[in-house]
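Weekly sync, protein design subgroup
Attendees: M.S., D.O., the rotation student, P.L. (late)

Item 1: inverse folding check
M.S. brought a backbone from last month's batch and wanted to see whether the design step gives back something sensible before we order anything. D.O. pointed out we never logged the input encoding, so this time it goes straight into the notes. Structure tokens as presented (345 positions):
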């Protein structure tokens, strides 16, 4: 059902859920005031409330249609900040109560730094206007100072909370996609990236290739020198592959000592050249407790008429061909080019 799809999208996109929730609160909370003020003749504030409500609905709709939550968040923070300032100036003390939910709203909509800047600008605008026209916003200087102190305290506390929450969420997102030992992306992230690559290949013709790399005789390292030594070899391997690959390539831990490298904008010749270069780097620079470590590689290019898992299976089959050929070999699908084993340094 469409409701289940909407709920799934909200669960999978934190910022979209926040924009939707804050937008709902804004529409439900402000609409009655907009109607009341228009009916009672307070047209300036009524139109400001109406503009905020309409802008909120349009921004939320844009976020849902495009998936872009950054621009709608900034837009809503600007609209709510300007609208709340205008309302506070027009209504005086009664309008100041809207500044406190505005502070919370901004810290949910945009980054903590942008939200803090927006809050400071609102406070400066209110104080500046009150100094130009005494008695319009604040009834006394004491009231103005009290409002500034409480407003800044609320902003500072909210900033700390939002900053810490964002940092923890970023850490959780990293833990969700990274292998904790090597720092390479994990299997879950690999599936997502391959699914996206397949979609881009079908829609726009973007070319992709994959290399599945397996460290030769890795079990001997664990058996002879212990798992700590084996773990260090894996860490060194990932660091070496990352240094030797293009920045746009994505490295994933496929399982155990197997790793997958996703290469965008790649032809068969590019894929074979990349495999040969990586194999050479590993053979020359990767060392374990027992000496040099080599790897076998299987590769495949993405086809337009197949599922991404089929490409993965083809690359995996080529890997086993490379291992059966004596290891330290390369076998790439689509032409089945095999490189001769490199001499062990």
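Designed sequence read out in the meeting:
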């Amino acid at each position: 059902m469409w409701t289940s799809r909407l709920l799934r999208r909200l669960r999978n996109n934190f910022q979209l859920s926040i924009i939707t929730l804050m937008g709902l609160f804004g529409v439900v909370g402000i609409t009655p005031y907009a109607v009341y003020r228009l009916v009672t003749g307070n047209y300036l504030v009524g139109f400001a409330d109406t503009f905020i409500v309409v802008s909120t609905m349009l921004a939320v709709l844009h976020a849902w249609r495009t998936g872009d939550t950054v621009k709608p968040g900034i837009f809503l923070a600007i609209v709510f900040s300007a609208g709340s300032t205008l309302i506070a100036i027009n209504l005086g003390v009664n309008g100041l109560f809207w500044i406190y939910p505005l502070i919370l709203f901004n810290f949910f909509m945009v980054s903590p730094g942008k939200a803090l800047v927006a809050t400071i600008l609102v406070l400066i605008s209110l104080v500046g206007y009150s100094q130009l026209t005494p008695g319009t916003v604040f009834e006394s200087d004491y009231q103005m100072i009290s409002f500034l102190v409480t407003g800044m305290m609320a902003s500072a506390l909210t900033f700390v909370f939002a900053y810490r929450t964002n940092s923890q969420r970023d850490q959780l997102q990293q833990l969700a996609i990274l292998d904790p030992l090597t720092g390479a992306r994990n299997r879950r992230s690999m599936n997502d990236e391959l699914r996206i690559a397949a979609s881009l290949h079908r829609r726009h013709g973007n070319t992709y290739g994959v290399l599945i790399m397996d460290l030769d005789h890795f079990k001997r390292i664990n058996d002879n020198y212990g798992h700590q030594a084996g773990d260090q070899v894996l860490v060194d391997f990932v660091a070496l592959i990352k240094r030797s690959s293009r920045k746009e390539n994505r490295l994933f831990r496929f399982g155990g000592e197997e790793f997958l490298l996703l290469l965008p904008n790649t032809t068969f010749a590019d894929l074979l050249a990349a495999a040969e270069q990586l194999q050479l780097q590993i053979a020359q620079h990767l060392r374990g407790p027992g000496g040099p470590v080599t790897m076998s590689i299987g590769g495949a290019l993405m086809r337009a008429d197949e599922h991404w898992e089929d490409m993965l299976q083809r690359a995996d089959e080529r890997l086993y061909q490379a291992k059966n050929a004596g290891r330290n070999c390369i076998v790439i699908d689509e032409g089945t080019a095999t490189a001769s084993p490199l001499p062990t340094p």
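Discussion: Confidence is low (pLDDT under 50) at residues 335-345. The beta strands are 208-215, 250-255, 258-264, 287-288, 291-292, 295-301, 330-332, 337-339.
Action: P.L. to compare against the previous round before Friday.
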